[in-house]
Fold each of these.
Amino acid sequence: MADRRQRKTKIAVQNAFMRLMLEKDIAKITVKDVATLADINRSTFYLHYYDIYDIQTEIARDTCEKILQLVREQDFDSIVRDPYPLLKAISDYLTADPLLAKFLLADDAGLYAEIQSALCTRLSRLYAATHPDIPAAEIDTSITFATSGVFSVYAAWFRSDRSTPLADVCKQLGLLIADGVRPLVERSV
């Protein structure tokens, strides 16, 4: 029972923090602000977190771990050949929690680059471990290019009117990652 209550409290605190971050800079957010919005007292806050920045760190770590879990659930070579299933799984994860998605992909949240960097590092290591014949610099450049593009497109989609279904966006991203822009350029010639 205590575990469920603790999880519920942490979720309330994280949601309160994300809502506040969408309104103002982290430097202007106080523990009192978060506690009030989460409907807890300050001492309860300190049972779970050291400070405001601790919440942000936990959200980034948990999100990165969840996305990496989605990667690990698939064969890495299959992802390279057809990234759509992974992209769809990530988009499903993000759309399941609109507040989290909006928070993570907000320009001023600062987590966007942090999570992307952590994912690039881990994905590069995973790929390098199974493909030792490919130079690390090439792997790093390719992974950085792909993740940067994916994160940028997700951010743009969440800020847009969302007239294109995210599944369609994921299909296009998958094709771009697998085939590059050449098929698009060749279609327009």
Amino acid sequence: MTFKDGVAKFLLKHSEKFIAIGLPAGTKYTVTENENKDYTVTSIGDKGIIKKDETIEAAFTNRKNTSTVSLNSSNPSSNQNNNPHTGDSTNEILWPTCLIVSLTILVAIIRKISRQHYNK
């Protein structure tokens, strides 16, 4: 770890860790994260003083900010274009139809097998 003016900088990606070894006891530390307006950041152990023979962990949690959609209850038809996009563009009828067709085929196969078995 390289310090410049008492500061060491490093970059981490999702789920990565950084371990600093050999820092002297009594050293004050602050761990920060670059700001991102799309996320709310919470942290634990991001500031403190290093004690002899003690391991310290700083952990950050980033939660994506979500937008809210206000609905006008007096005129529901005016909210057509304000519905949130979920990414699910499947047809709601498709899956129940597939289930019914599959069950019908399954019943037909079972009937055919039982008739063949009964006719023996």
